[in-house]
Amino acid sequence: MKSKVVPLRIPENLDELAALSAQEQHTDKATALRQWLHRGAAQYVLRLVAEGRISMGRAAELLDLTVYDLQQQAEAQGIEMGAANEQRRRSRALVAKLKNN
User: Fold this and answer.
1) What are the phi and psi torsion angles at 15 (to 5°)?
2) Is residue 55 part of a domain?
3) 6 within domain boundaries
């Protein structure tokens, strides 16, 4: 995945938290901030998929994951990624209608 340098101003308290997180994880502050950013982005994208605003394929592409990995993340966070009950009901009705024709 390509990376891009982005100048960023953050509040001092977040800088302190990033330093603490980096120390606990035995890494550097920039890595801790990137991990936070990625986790937040993943939660945001999963919410977009759950709301039907983007496809699972596009979400997986944005997060550089497989669709399977994306589904596992959603399941771990308790986010429903499948069809809604209303969508299932309409699908079944359509199948029944097609069978009768």
Assistant:
1) -60, -45
2) yes
3) no
